[in-house]
Amino acid sequence: MGAKSRFREFKVEMGPTVKEIKFMLGRIKKSPLSIVGMAIIIFFIAVALLAPILAPPGPDWAVYETYDPMRIPRDSYVSTPSPPSERHPFGTAEFQYDLYYGSIWGTITAFRVGLWVTLASLAIGLSIGVVAGYYGGIIDELMMRFTDIIMAFPGLILAMALVAAFGATLDNVLLALTIIGWPGYTRVIRGEILRVKQEDYVEAAKAVGCSDLRVIVKHVLPNSIYPIVIMASLDIGSVVLTAAALSFLGLGAPVDYADWGQLIARSQNWIYGNINDPFSFWYTFLIPGIFIFTFVLGWNLLGDAFRDIMDPTLRRR
Amino acid sequence: MGLRAYIIRRILLVIPILMGTTLLIFAVTQLFNPVARASLYITNIQQFTTENINQVIEKHGLNDPAYMQFFRWLSEVLSGNLGYSRTARQPVLQALITRIPATFELVMFSAPIIILLGIYLGVKSAVHRDKPIDHATRTLSIIGWSLPTFWLGIILLSVFYVGFQAFPPRRLSPTTYNFVSMSGSYVRYTGLYTIDGLLNGQLWITLEALEHLVLPVLTLTIVIVTIIIRVMRSSMLEALNKGYIIAARAKGLTQNEVINKHARRNALIPTVTISGLLVAGLLNGVVITETIFSLNGIGMWAAAAALQMDIAGVLGFTLFSGFLFVMANLIVDILYAYLDPRIMLA
């Protein structure tokens, strides 16, 4: 078989996929909210990539951590926050940690938390859900009871308990959020697989002697994976919010770490302002909060649009 | 299977889940050394001296294999002993009981607003799909859904309390609190100041407690109502596309009759499930909201316990909220079966 005919065959095989992608792009163009969402995320990706240029770490500061740019530098140890100035465009948090630096580098933390937890939960949830759904039996029963147990707790509360038990570090926050995150994916993918494995094309693939792996990867997964991909895209924002809430409670990154939730946590002593001006420290909580809110809004807008586009029950109405 | 058989089966299913939750909490306790774990067994601060800790470890066999400890710990839990909380300076069970009224008061005012507003806006949005009201509701709900609870609380506190001296934090002002705790004439009936004020014939206490509740209730409502709106909207949209709605329209019923008599009742069925999510949202929400507004309820205590590594406190609270959540889901499932008999066949 020549290269040309193989290409033609490839084109025929990929035809529906190409059509699908074109359709999706067309839908994205028509939905202004998804464009706003995408613009926000692209903006934050740029901020994260350009962090060393936007907020250079190092000897420019009086106090800084040589090895870790994620540690917020400062100019002195004075406890009262200072207002925005040329030197500190967003002002400083208590003990003079620079808010501009913290907000810029905090973007990296937010991406790390959101993507890491979502992808890890998705990977674990997917593998366990596929095995449980496809093979059934005792493994299925055990795994489902295990997800029942984790889902028997309100998420933030179980995460809080786990972080308190593991020790309050950012890595443990990621671990705890993954532990509470995967069961949701497992349940959904399992349900989808139970539905798909009854289909004739799966039976046919088995009948011609395809291996289990081939049946799962080529026939079952492509027809059952969409719901959890949509779920994941909608989850990134909530994961970042939960992590920020844990940071706010003091269960997260150390005090000088570039993390938005942590910066807001440290503004709590200053929300009452001083005697002359009740709003004198507005920047300590307003600015990092705007960063979290915009970041989460971007993901939520994108995820929402993504769901409308991908969900077959909603899309062609 | 009849409704009764379904309910009995559903109740029996709760038992293994509750066993599982205790097992998970117990597994977490095993991360700690026996000295730290001793706090799970004692009920009295006097037992916290060095030699007594060793006695406690000895008595409860905290160095034994885990499975042996599990059943001993479980029997303590079942008899109501959840250990001693350092942060509350009380046994855990007592700490929960004294703080539940504050949390319950917050939830009692938030939940009805969240449910009614959520259903109203969700239905409105779906019925007027792609009209300005739908766009406005959807935009507001996606904004509310993206707001960090703690940041919203801080902003509200800063604008209303710091800016306008309105709606102060805490449950009552210090003077009123002194009156309530010291005065012989005030009787504590429920622990809810809004209700006890009325029962004591002191309307001003009720009004003051309400004033203090405005911002926490608002925070909790804004954050959670968005979930209800979203689910209500999409299930209403689905209901409106059903054959029986088209039939009702063809029959010549008015728009209001179609929505009120046919669409909304069916759209409510998935919302019953969402009440499960509502309970989780409220439990998660009170931890943050109480912390910001210094409402001395179980959430604020749990946050403090987690921060201070008070394992008896934080795990006791986690077990308690898991129990509440499982029970709430049980009730939701039974309601669901009652509303939608098809579910029993599944």
What separation lies between the terminal Cα atoms of chain B?
Answer: 10 Å
State the helix count of chain A. 12
Instruction: Please state roughly what percent of the residues of chain B sit in beta strands, choosing from under 5%, 5-15%, 15-25%, 25-35%, 35-45% or over 45%.
Output: under 5%
Level of helix content of chain A? 55-70%
How helix-rich are the residues of chain B, as a percent range? over 70%
Alpha carbon gyration radius of chain A: 24 Å
Question: What ranges of chain A have pLDDT less than 50 throughout 5 or more consecutive residues?
Answer: none
Order of helices and strands of chain A: HHHHHHHHHHHH
- Strand-residue proportion of chain A: under 5%
Structural class of chain B: mainly alpha
Assembly classification: heterodimer
Task: Outline the structure in words.
The complex is a heterodimer of chains A (317) and B (346). In chain A, 70% of the residues lie in helices and 0% in strands. Chain A has 12 helices and no strands. Chain A is elongated, with a radius of gyration of 24 Å. Chain B has 346 residues and is mainly α. Chain B has a two-stranded antiparallel ribbon with strand order 1-2. The radius of gyration of chain B is 24 Å and the shape is globular. The interface between A and B is large, with 50 and 52 residues.
